[in-house]
């Protein structure tokens, strides 16, 4: 199997084997385990895993034809649904209520969190980072329009904060971890309740989904087996995660309980997507000319029902 070190072009040797754009994130652990334990081969599929930095980039790989499937949180998927892209969400395989981190320079908030008004905040546009930034600011009574928004790539967030180019960053792991590491004693993570339950999902190009059902089912079956391995062998799973994502093993151990790995399609996913769609329209992140999307038309539960029928809420067709 081929695993690209960076997002970009991959040389693919199989005509029907899926090219899967996988976000370099702790949430993608089932893919790393399935690769490590040869679980894909056990289910007669040989995917090429194309590593990319963030779900929005993974989706771009798929939309632009360099991948057949992709991993992403529901937020970038929501934006693509607004545009009517020919993609479908197949299953949720991970959830986390604390993957997002708002890391701020301590000197900025020594007089209180409201001091963030007018400050430069780094985030990744139209991703979970963007959504979480607004949620957290609103929680502290700060109008998201009152800060200086600095959109950037996820891998640039930590360095920008450490250099003082921004005053705070909204980042997912491992970039939140990187921001804390580079900032050291000069930065802190802003406390908040669990504002956002992020899902990580498997998406597919519609053409591939409709023509390669057996391969897609094999991918899901391998992920399901990988998840069972994670539950039974957490210590080994953490070692795989530390190596493949590049996080400190002790940090992973501390946050391990925040990650929930399970193949599901829950009604709450649609509720979350609908709330995010209202946010996107209200904040002007999508054109007012676009119709409100019907998310159920972009979700296919049929493959997951073959693997774990009880994991699908009745709301899904």
Automatic annotation (TrEMBL):
Q: Name one Pfam family in it.
A: NMT1
SsuA/THI5-like domain span:
28-237
UniProt-listed GO biological process terms = alkanesulfonate transmembrane transport
Please provide, in alphabetical order, the Gene Ontology terms of the cellular component aspect for this entry. Answer: periplasmic space
Which domain of life, per UniProt? Bacteria
Which keywords belong to this entry? Signal
What is the annotated signal peptide range for this record? none
Q: Does the keyword Ligase apply?
A: no
| Record's subcellular location | Periplasm
Q: Record's family?
A: Belongs to the bacterial solute-binding protein SsuA/TauA family.
The name this protein carries in UniProt is ABC transporter substrate-binding protein
Q: Which organism is it from?
A: Limnobacter thiooxidans
Q: What is the lineage of its organism?
A: Bacteria, Pseudomonadati, Pseudomonadota, Betaproteobacteria, Burkholderiales
